[in-house]
Design goal:
Helix 9 links the parallel strand 6 and strand 7. The relative contact order is 0.19. 41% of the residues lie in helices and 14% in strands. The protein contains 13 helices and seven strands. The protein has a single domain, classed as P-loop containing nucleotide triphosphate hydrolases (Rossmann fold, 3-Layer(aba) Sandwich), CATH 3.40.50.300. It has a seven-stranded mixed sheet, with helices on both faces. By secondary structure, the protein is an alpha/beta fold. The longest helix has 16 residues.
Length: 263
């Protein structure tokens, strides 16, 4: 039985496309026949909203069957899994209460490993080929928890003048996390929200390609109205419009992710 691969999507800059990339890579993996569990680690609920309408997401957020209560009470996450409308694709929903998770973790013993321990039984069951984790745009104890629970880190970066802002802080943070999670690997950087008619794209790619020991995905995601319409309809872009440019680009990115993790 192949090991479950755990990938987190993180960037301390908001608007980088973390949730969108996590959702669409997750869906494409499931479409390829892989069994995928998505974990919504952000109080903004965007990953959950990628698969369920607002009423259903708020219902899950206001219940006690979401990630916040599981982490606060240090529970096994097996009982918090919700099936999405798509085959091979499940979700652990988030809550707006995740805004206070840093406070709740502060007094916990070995607080950096609570998420990792909560996922142990799910990973040991072999039910999923991939677990994908979305993160809030912060660098703190909760994101450290997510990194410690992950095998790989994928960093979405927006192709904009401020897209690279804070990236050095993220790398410094990851270096500190590796002191307690030495097996964590950086899978690479994926460039999002690309407008090829603007110089920002070329500048972003050139700067990122010069980074030492950081892989730059050759597949990038261009600005496409289909992504926003898909989000508005609570669907992956592949489901909303399979023929769209962004759907094809996410498929290519997913294939590149698979090659990077040797699947």
């Amino acid at each position: 039985m192949a090991k479950t691969v755990t990938i987190c999507f993180a960037n301390n800059k908001g608007g980088s496309g973390k949730s969108t990339t996590c959702a669409n890579v997750g869906y494409d993996l499931s479409r390829m026949g892989y069994r995928v569990l998505l974990v919504d680690g952000d109080m903004q609920l965007n990953l959950s909203l990628s698969f369920f309408d607002e009423d259903r997401v708020l219902e899950m957020a206001q219940s006690e069957k979401n990630l916040y209560y599981a982490i606060r009470d240090q529970k096994d996450l097996t009982d918090y899994v919700v099936a999405t409308p798509y085959e091979n694709l499940d979700l652990i929903p988030s809550s707006t209460l995740m805004s206070q998770i840093e406070f709740d973790l502060f007094t916990k013993w070995q607080r950096e490993y609570i998420l990792k321990k909560s996922l142990e039984n799910i990973k040991a069951s072999g039910k999923y080929d991939f677990i994908l984790l979305d993160t809030p745009p912060t660098l703190g104890g909760w994101v450290m928890n997510i990194l410690c629970a992950s095998d790989y880190l994928l960093i979405p970066v927006e192709a904009s003048p401020w897209g690279l802002f804070g990236l050095a802080n993220l790398f410094d943070f990851v270096a500190r996390v590796r002191q307690i999670a030495p097996d964590l690997q950086t899978l690479g950087i994926a460039v999002t929200k690309v407008n090829e008619r603007k110089n920002y794209f070329k500048q972003t790619f050139e700067t990122l390609s010069e980074l030492d020991n950081v892989y730059l995905f050759q597949s990038y995601i261009r600005v496409d109205a289909s992504i926003e319409w898909a989000q508005d309809n609570s669907k992956p872009v592949e489901v909303y419009k399979a023929s769209s440019r962004s759907a094809m680009e996410y498929r290519k990115l997913t294939e590149e992710v698979l090659s990077r993790v040797n699947r």
